[in-house]
Amino acid sequence: MSSVITKDDFFALVNEIQSSPYYRQPLAFAIARVDRGQKDPSKILQATFPFINWEENYASAAIFQKALQESGCLIPLDESEVVFDVNRNFVAEAISYCTPWLDEAVGEAHKNVQVMKYLRDLPEEELANFRVVFLFEDAKPKSVEAVYLKLYALSQGKAPLRSLNLDGAFGVLPNVAWEGRKPYELEWLRENELRLKMEGNYPNIDAVDKFPRYLQHVIPAENTRILDAAKVRMGAQLAPGTTVMPGASYVNFNAGTLGPCMVEGRISSSAVVGKGSDIGGGASILGVLSGTSGNPITIGENCLLGANSVTGIPLGDGCIVDAGIAVLEGTKFFIAPEEFKKIKEANPDWDAQYKELFKGIELAGLSGIHFRQDSTSGQMKAFRSCKEVKLNEELH
Amino acid sequence: MSSVITKDDFFALVNEIQSSPYYRQPLAFAIARVDRGQKDPSKILQATFPFINWEENYASAAIFQKALQESGCLIPLDESEVVFDVNRNFVAEAISYCTPWLDEAVGEAHKNVQVMKYLRDLPEEELANFRVVFLFEDAKPKSVEAVYLKLYALSQGKAPLRSLNLDGAFGVLPNVAWEGRKPYELEWLRENELRLKMEGNYPNIDAVDKFPRYLQHVIPAENTRILDAAKVRMGAQLAPGTTVMPGASYVNFNAGTLGPCMVEGRISSSAVVGKGSDIGGGASILGVLSGTSGNPITIGENCLLGANSVTGIPLGDGCIVDAGIAVLEGTKFFIAPEEFKKIKEANPDWDAQYKELFKGIELAGLSGIHFRQDSTSGQMKAFRSCKEVKLNEELH
Amino acid sequence: MSSVITKDDFFALVNEIQSSPYYRQPLAFAIARVDRGQKDPSKILQATFPFINWEENYASAAIFQKALQESGCLIPLDESEVVFDVNRNFVAEAISYCTPWLDEAVGEAHKNVQVMKYLRDLPEEELANFRVVFLFEDAKPKSVEAVYLKLYALSQGKAPLRSLNLDGAFGVLPNVAWEGRKPYELEWLRENELRLKMEGNYPNIDAVDKFPRYLQHVIPAENTRILDAAKVRMGAQLAPGTTVMPGASYVNFNAGTLGPCMVEGRISSSAVVGKGSDIGGGASILGVLSGTSGNPITIGENCLLGANSVTGIPLGDGCIVDAGIAVLEGTKFFIAPEEFKKIKEANPDWDAQYKELFKGIELAGLSGIHFRQDSTSGQMKAFRSCKEVKLNEELH
Questions:
Q1: If you placed Cys at C133, which of A56, A395, C145, C250 could pair as Cys (CB 3.0 to 4.6 Å)?
Q2: Does A170 touch chain C (CB under 8 A)?
Q3: CB proximity A323 to B under 8 Å
Q4: How many whole angstroms separate alpha carbon A131 and alpha carbon A146?
C-alpha cells in the first residue's frame, strides 16, 4: 500500500493516479448495496446507492480505481461501464489512501470516505452485498447497477430529464416481486410457494415490476409531497414543491416536473412539466411509449390541464386544456380571426398564416392558448387564454 | 389530592370544578399518543387518539382540567386551544378523582378512565409519548394535536363535513415520510440516508405527506369498504355502506359521503355526496382547492356520475351525468321546451324562465336532470332524467 | 389403517375407494391454511391454498376422502361443497396411504403429498389453521374456502374467466381490515382500538375489503407486471405478458386479459380483453356490476382504447376508441357509405343494412372499427380502422 499520511500525500497520489495509464475519468461512479437473487445469487435484483458521484469527485474516482487495480480488478479500457464485487483488499487499499480524511468524514463531508469506513467495519460475509460501479460514458446501460445509477442521477436531479441513454434498460432489469424494499425472484417464489404458504410466511407483495418506486431510494425535498409511493417510479424527477395526489396520477421514469406543480394526472415516460402547472385529476399527458408519434411532450409553465383531459402535443406557457377534452396531433381546432391575431402576438415566432382550422400538431409548443370544445356546437376551438393559471398555495 | 371514594364524591367534585374560575367548557378534548421528530423531539409528527371527546363527557373534562391545574399546567383563559405534555402528577391526580369508576372502566364504558388507567401503568419514560389537548372553540387550529382532533371528529362522524375551521392546517402539519403508521422527518432521513442504506435498514416509505391516511386512524363501519388505504385521506368522512374502489378514486379530507355510495372517482376537498349515489370510474367532482370558483359542491342522493365525467356544479337528487362529459359552471346546455317544463315540475322552487341555453351554474342544485352530449350534433343537453339510479346491492 | 407399501398397493386402494359408495368425484379440492377471526375463531377470514386441484389429481381426492371417512368426517352425498377441519387422524391416515410417494414428493412432484408431509410435522395446535375443502359441482359457493378456491382457479388460469358460479360470494366473504396479508375482524379492531393505540401497536391497515389482492395469493408469470398490488383483485386473471400500470388502472375479480396487454385503465368485473390490446390511461371498460345493461364486455385482440375513453359495448379485433370519448350502447355513430362497405368486408357475418346512424349496441362485437368524435362538428363517427395497433415491445 502507498503511504498516505498527510493531505498533501493524498493529492500527490491522486495526481499520480490520474496520469497513470489505467485511470479513466468516469461520467459517474458509486458503491451499491445490492440485493441478490434468492435462487441465483449471481443475479442482481436491486442496487441501492448510499451516495452517487455524477461528473464530480474525481479524486475519489482515482483512489477507487487504484484500489481496484491493486486488489486485482482491472479497469477495462474500452467498456462504457464496469462493475466489480467489493472485496476486503479493495476496501483496505482505499481506506489506506484516505487516512487524512477519516476523522473529517462525517455528516455532509467526504461521503465516499464515509462509505469506505462502513465497508471497513463490516464482517467479511457482508461485503458480498456491495459492488462498485463506474460509468465511463453515457452508452446503453449493460448492468443493473448502471441502470440504477442513471435512475438515481435523474431522480436526484443530477442529470436533466431525457438527457441519459436508457436504451435497453427494460432488458437489463429483472422482473421481481417487491415486498417493501425487498425484491424476490419470481422463480424462487414459485419454487417455495407451497412451503411459504404452509408455514404462514408467504410474503406480502406490493408490486411486481422491473423498476423500484421513487420513494424506495429517493428522499424528496422538504416541500414535496407524494401521497402514494406507487404513483412515482424510480427515475422520475420531481422539482421541490411538487405534489402528487393519489387519485389517477402517475409519474413514469424519465419524466416529471421542473418546478412546483400539482399532479393529479399522468405524466408518461419522457413527458416534462414546467413550474406552476396543474395537471388535473385524471389528466393524461401522452408519452413516447404510449400514444405520441415518438416526440416527447413538454408542458410549459403555468398551464392547466383540466380534469380528465388528454394532451398529445407539447404546450407552451399559460395554456389551458379544458376538462374532459382531448388535444391530439390530428385534432382540428377552429380559430377565429381575432383570436389568431392574439395568439400570434403572444407567440411572435410562430410562423403561420390564418386559416379556420388548425391541427393540434400545428399548435404544438405555442403559449397562451385555451383549448375548448364548444358546448353548443361540439366544435373544438382554440383561443387566446385570458385566465392566469395559479396554483393553490397550499397545493391541497 | 382530593378524596374521591364514592360516585357522589365524584359528582360533587365535578360540580365544584365546573363552577371554579379556571374551568373552561371545551368544544373537544382528548389524550393523544404522539410521534415525535427523530431529529427534533419537540416537533410533533402525528397524534393518535385512542378516544376523542367532542361536545360530550364534560365531567371528564372537569377532572382533567383540575388534574392539570394541580400538576402545574395552567389552563389559559384566552386561547382557543391548549396542549400539555402528560406527566406523572397529572395522571396520579386524575386517577385519584376517578376511583369510583376504575373497576367499571372496561369495554365500552368510561373510555377516558380507561385511558388514564393505561397511563397509570406506564413506565415513566413512556409518558413522554402522550399529550393532552383541549379545544375551547372552533378557531384556526394552531397545533398538530388540534388539527388531528378535528380530522378525527370529521372522520368519526362526530362533526359534519365542512362544519369545522381548518384554516391554516397545511401550515401546522409537518410534511413527513410515512413508513406504515410511522412518520419520519425528511431532514432526519436525509442526515441518516447513507448509514441506513449501508446497513440495509433504509425504511420502506409509503407516502410523503402532511396528512396521514384515514385507515391509519379510523375503523370504518362494518359494511364500508376501502380497497386501497392510499385513496382516503384522514379527515374524510365515509358513511356506512360506502365502497371506495382502487382505480382512479380518491376522497380528500373534509369531503365524503352521507350514505351508502359507490366511489370509483374523485371526491375533492369539501365535496359531499348524498346517499345512493354512484361516482363512476374516473369521475371527478371538483373541489374548492382545485377547479371550482370556491363554492363547495354537493351531490344529491341517487345520482350517477358516469365514468370519466367531470362535475363542477352542485347537483340535486337523481341526476345523471353521462360518461365522459364535463358539466362546468360555464358549460351551455340546450333544454327543449317540454324538458324545461318537466324539470320545473321536479323542482318547484326553481325560479327560471324558459330559454334555449342554460349555463351549468344556472342548473346548480336542481334534481332529476340528465346531462348529455348529443352524439349526432356534439351539443350539450340537459333533460329530465327518466332512469332511476340504483346502486348494485353488493356494490362490487 | 390400510397397509400401502408399494405403488401397486396405492393404485389398488385408489380403485377401491373410487368404487366405494362414499366416494364423490370432485370438481376441485385443496388444503387451505386459514386465518380465523380474532374475536370469533370459528369465523374464517381468509383461505390460503399452497396448491389447488381443479378437475385433476383424482387419486389424491380418493385418498383424502378415505382419510376423512376414517377420521370421522362424512362426505355428504347431496351438498355441492364440504369443508372440514384438518385433524391429526386425517393426516395420519392420508400419510399412511401415501407411503410409496413420500420420498419422491419434492419440488414439482406430488404436491398433495408434500402438503400432507408438512401437516404431519406440525405441532397439534397448529393443525387448527388448516382445513380441507371439496367442491363437487359449480354451485353457488357457501363457504369462504369455496369462494377462495374458485378465485384461485380463475387467477391461476385453471378455469376460464366468467366460467364459474360466484353468485352470493359477496355475502359469504366477511369484510375485513387487511394489514398486509393479515386480515382483522373490524369488530375486534373496534373493541381493541383503545388498547392498541395506547400501546402504540395499532396495525397499519392497507385496505378494508371482502376480497384479498391478487398478489397476496398468486405469483404472476415471469413477464407479467403489476406495479401496484392494490390494482388487481383476487379472482382476476392476467395472461403472461400483461402489464398493469399504477395510474388509474384496475382489474376486478372475474375479469382480465387473454394475452399480453397493456393495462392503464379499468377492466371491470366480467370484462375480458384479448391479446395485444392496449387499455389506455384512465380508459374504462364497463362491467356487469357498473354501467352495462348486464352483458359482460369482451374486447378483442389488438384493440386500442384511448386515454380516458369509455367503452360500454363489446369490441371485435383491431378496434380503436379515440382518447376521451364514450362508446355506449345508445351512442349514435354516423357511418359514411364507403366506410359501411369496408366495415362489412371486415365483418362478413355482420348482417346489417346501410343507414347513416348506428347505435353503439348495433356495432357490438365488430372488428376493425375506429370510433371518433369529429373535432369540427362534434358528431360521433365510426369508420374502418386503418392503423394497426401494436403494443410497445417493452410495455413500459
A1: C145
A2: yes
A3: yes
A4: 11
